[in-house]
Amino acid sequence: MSAFDIVVLGAEGVQRTTLEATVRRLGHESTAIDPEAVENLPATGDVVMVDLRDDTAHLEALTEELLDDERPLILVADRPRQMISTLSSRPAGTLLLTGAEDDSGYRVALTLAAAFSRPRTSAGREAGWTAPTVRAAAAQ
To answer: What domain range includes position 72?
Structure first.
């Protein structure tokens, strides 16, 4: 699996910083974005990872954009949320990580995200196939 450029969306703090560190430790690039500070999703990045473990009020404003986004989506959650149900039907693929933070769970999610990724062209992302929703749970 090649390295991804991962957009990490989540409230500023220890959890997002730890998530970024995990992504980098696994050999990927990461760009952290505080949903309070943006109105739209950035167009850069291969995968979007959303940290749902803190207040999701600002993330919910991005739900429609996340539904329409063509990149694989990895949700990191510690409890059920309406946003998870809403985003589970995305054509571009949605992975859900729950439970204790564990590198192996992130590796599995990123490997599956690689399967969902669409090939890049010089003009950007190609339209084409869609992937089914897959939910992966990290080992507890």
So the answer is: 5-121
